[in-house]
Design brief:
Layout lengths: L6 E4 L3 H13 L3 E5 L2 H9 L3 E4 L17 E4 L3 H13 L6 E4 L6 H6 L4 E3 L1 H13 L7 E2 L8 E7 L11 H4 L1 H5 L1 E8 L2 E4 L12 E7 H7 L4 E2 L6 E4 L3 H12 L4 E5 L8 E2 L5 H6 L7 E4 L4 H14 L4 E6 L5 H7 L3 E4 H14 L10 E6 L14 H5 L2 E7 L2 E3 L13 E7 H10 L16
Parallel strand pairs: 1-2, 1-4, 2-3, 4-5, 5-6, 7-19, 13-14, 13-16, 14-15, 16-17, 17-18
Antiparallel strand pairs: 8-11, 8-12, 9-10, 9-11, 19-22, 20-21, 20-22
């Protein structure tokens, strides 16, 4: 078809699935060049414009490509290289974005004409590793500002917990236990605690701040997530290898499971079998990363591991974005597809959209009081207005995390506010706050 204003996608697959949906959403026309007949028919049945054939046998198929808005190639690396060269030989001067399997192939592809080359499977592996290890990506950025006696902890809320399905207004966690509920992770999404009507979901991961002694009390009502122990990685393909590489670089201990023997594989076996899980010490792990290449196997493995080790943090990769919801339903704490990663990268470069963050990150900000002066940290509707929370107040050489009813913020106090980036931005605007200068050696006392 006439390619003016269209995007040409060379070979369809999970890595471009999310991009195609984004192109359809914004109304950008595209054509898929496919050499697998069954795939071509499936795409045609979905209403896509498809050109069927093999480039090496029918080089004339690229006739008219010069008018395309952009080219994306998603075949194996050798076929990608051929496509890039043929497009440039026909006089195409626009952007060519390539999705490569091997990072070492990026420079050669760029030399023969690719505008940019990406390895989404490696980006996916890095994202999964960061989710598994606090050494790679801390669960709360800036937590060190609070010192050693104040912390933020994660608790899994079992269905039998007295916290499950309860409203924060009824639980009164601050008054009864001296802790502040920041929010909860559920289905891979973080929801800030926005007020007394916020309900704690069964199965969610609750994020709580407070003095360490007070956090210990909450452990009796919910299950603390294990902070120490090896990280078990199931699946040692391209994604699994990247996960293990990053974890080792961060100093983490790993136990690798795969059905095939390899010098780097610690346990040869099937992740679906209890004998394999026992041999890999899954119940003692700080996290389990499922880097399986088959989505059906990944969903079932998630259910098996969750049943075997209900308290372990479970992170899973998936090929097709629509299957992410199934992973969460089966019990994953965090799931991400290669299509989501590639779609974010390509949409950013192709459509000029801001890159979508892989996950929400919590941050702790040290701020001047602004209009909070004269008000109580917990009675100024901070949650309701900003979806963030004041978790501590620095006064002189002390860091306070519990406040009696008569407590008021003073002009020389410094407040510690915790929330997502969006929530913190709202707080700064709502209470006219500014970042506070950090002292050379902050003290902490609860």
């Amino acid at each position: 078809p006439d390619m003016a204003g269209r995007v040409l996608i060379h070979r369809y697959g999970p890595a471009v699935d999310s991009l195609v949906e984004e192109l359809r959403r914004v109304g950008t026309a595209f054509v898929v060049l496919e050499q697998d007949e069954r795939q071509a028919r499936r795409l045609r049945d979905r209403g896509y414009d498809v050109v069927f054939g093999a480039l090496d046998e029918q080089p004339g198929m690229l006739s008219g490509v010069e008018a395309a808005q952009a080219l994306i190639t998603n075949a194996d690396d050798h076929a990608d290289a051929t496509f890039i060269m043929m497009a440039r030989e026909r006089g195409y001067t626009g952007p060519i974005l390539a999705l490569a399997e091997d990072p070492l192939h990026r420079p050669p592809m760029e030399k023969i004409g690719a505008t940019a080359v990406f390895t989404p499977s490696h980006v996916l592996g890095a994202a999964l590793a960061a989710r598994a290890s606090a050494r790679i990506s801390p669960k709360v950025e800036g937590l060190q500002l609070l010192g050693e006696r104040v912390g933020i902890a994660d608790f899994r809320v079992q269905a039998s917990s007295p916290l499950a399905r309860q409203r924060l207004g009824d639980l009164r966690m601050r008054a009864h236990h001296g802790v502040t509920v920041i929010g909860q992770w559920n289905g891979g999404r973080f929801a800030s605690a926005e007020g007394p009507d916020t309900r704690i979901e069964a199965g969610a991961i609750l994020v709580v701040a407070g003095a360490l002694a007070n956090l210990a009390r909450v452990e009796r009502m919910a299950t603390p997530l294990r902070l120490h122990g090896p990280i078990v990685v199931a699946g040692y393909g391209a994604v699994g290898r990247k996960v293990v590489e990053m974890l080792h670089d961060a100093g983490e201990t790993t136990i690798v499971i795969d059905v095939r023997a390899d010098p780097e594989v610690d346990v040869v076996g099937n992740i679906l079998e209890h004998a394999t899980l026992e041999h890999a010490r899954v119940r003692n792990a700080s996290a389990v990363v499922l880097a399986l290449s088959n989505d059906s196997a990944g969903v079932f493995a998630t259910a098996v591991v969750r049943d075997y080790a209900p308290e372990v943090r479970l992170i899973a990769r998936v090929n097709l974005a629509p299957n992410v919801a199934r992973l969460y339903q089966a019990g994953a704490d965090f799931a991400l597809s290669v299509g989501q990663v590639a779609g974010q990268i390509l949409a950013h470069h192709l459509l000029g959209e801001s890159a979508i963050t892989v996950e929400q990150r919590l941050k702790l900000a040290r701020v001047a009081p602004g209009t909070m002066v004269g008000r109580h940290p917990w009675k100024a509707e901070v949650r309701e207005k900003t979806a963030s929370a004041v978790v501590a107040v620095e006064r002189g050489t002390e860091v306070l995390v519990e406040f009696d009813p008569e407590f008021q913020v003073r002009a020389d106090d410094v407040l510690f506010v915790c929330g997502t980036t969006t929530g913190l931005d709202k707080y700064m605007r709502e209470f006219r706050a500014t970042s506070a200068e950090r002292p050379a050696a902050p003290a902490a006392r609860s």
